[in-house]
Amino acid sequence: MYKIITADRFLWEGIDLHGKIVLEGGTSWGNTTRLIANKVVENNWRTELISVDIDDSHFNEIEEDIKDDFAKLTLRKGDLSDLYFIPSNSIDIIICNYTLSSVEQFPLRVMKAIKELYRVLKKDGQLLITEEMPIWSVDSADYTYWSKRLRIIKSISVLKAMPAFNEIHPNDLEEGLGIIGFKDIQWREFNEKINAEMAVKFLDKRKQTLIKGSNDLENKQLNDGFVEITEKLVKEFEKTKEFLAPAYILKAKK
Ligand SMILES: C[S@@+](CC[C@H](N)C(=O)[O-])C[C@H]1O[C@@H](n2cnc3c(N)ncnc32)[C@H](O)[C@@H]1O
């Protein structure tokens, strides 16, 4: 869904992947995995990439796309809050694009994950994080699509008692990383471009949970109302290719 476009320069500035072991947190559809693989192949770098996700459902398609050109890729099913399969002080660079707010669906799990990221990173190794700004911290008419979509997703999650994404404010993340021991922490806000077609897919998934799941509150009006506003937003998205989201990139060192 996400493609680092506007912040690409800041993300890669001062980052040298050649001869490095890179850990990616949150493979998902493989956007960042492909981005790293392309960079490595184009530049003929000797880079090893381990990409970890708790959900391995996209691993096969990613492997099929990448493995022929980039053999040093390991896709590993695992929880970032328990990286027992990665030795301490073994990773040069860690990249987590839009993953930590997903880990934080379960409160405090992100602290365990950050502790693990710190453990596996070599001394002076680099941590790169991209995240959306928390919805409560942004009050701007520039992000209507983003805001409507997130509000609907969050509301349905609460209605169906599902874990919901918890975006982390960069100030809080900076402080949390500092408590764990990270140093040289800097972050910058930017506008992310979200692909509308992918955003529709995600909305549709949430709509299906309303239609197929049990109606725990036994209130048909409430359920139908959310189906209606979801379908209305999907129609709006069909008219656009992409929309803006407020995001930030954070960099830190061990
Ligand atoms: C928005 S996606 C990441 C997007 C991806 N990094 C990219 O650049 O397109 C968030 C991912 O985090 C994964 N995730 C959530 N909690 C996790 C955990 N505790 N450990 C590992 N992965 C986790 C989810 O399964 C999901 O695939």
Please give a handful of descriptors for the protein shown:
single chain; 254 residues; alpha/beta; Rossmann fold; 8-stranded mixed beta sheet; 9 helices; binds S-adenosylmethionine; Methyltransf_11
Describe the structure.
- This is Ubiquinone/menaquinone biosynthesis C-methylase UbiE.
- Residues 24-129 form the Methyltransferase type domain.
- It is a single chain.
- By secondary structure, the protein is an alpha/beta fold.
- It has a single domain (2-253), classed as Vaccinia Virus protein VP39 (Rossmann fold, 3-Layer(aba) Sandwich).
- It is 41% helix and 24% strand.
- It contains nine helices and eight strands.
- The chain has helices at 8-12, 31-43, 59-66, 100-103, 109-120, 144-159, 170-180, 196-212, 220-237; strands spanning 2-3, 21-25, 48-53, 73-77, 91-97, 121-132, 183-195, 242-253.
- The protein has an eight-stranded mixed sheet, sandwiched between helices.
- Helix 6 (144-159) runs parallel beside helix 8, helix 6 (144-159) packs antiparallel against helix 9 and helix 8 (196-212) packs antiparallel against helix 9 (220-237).
- The longest helix has 18 residues, at 220-237.
- The two termini are 30 Å apart.
- The model has no long low-confidence stretch (mean pLDDT 91).
- Bound molecules: S-adenosylmethionine (SAM).
- S-adenosylmethionine (SAM) is lined by residues 2, 26, 28-29, 31-32, 52-55, 79-81, 97-99, 102-103, 109.
Low-confidence stretches: none
CATH architecture: 3-Layer(aba) Sandwich
Query: What separation lies between the terminal Cα atoms?
Result: 30 Å
Structural domain count: 1
Spell out the CATH superfamily: Vaccinia Virus protein VP39
Shape: globular
Overall pLDDT metric: 91
Strand content: 15-25%
| Structural class designation | alpha/beta
Listing every helix as H and every strand as E from the N terminus to the C terminus, the arrangement reads EHEHEHEEHHEHHEHHE
Strands of the biggest beta sheet: in what spatial order? 1-7-8-6-5-2-3-4
* Number of helices, counting only DSSP H or I runs of 4 residues or more: 9
Bound chemical compounds: S-adenosylmethionine
CATH topology: Rossmann fold
Helix content estimate:
40-55%
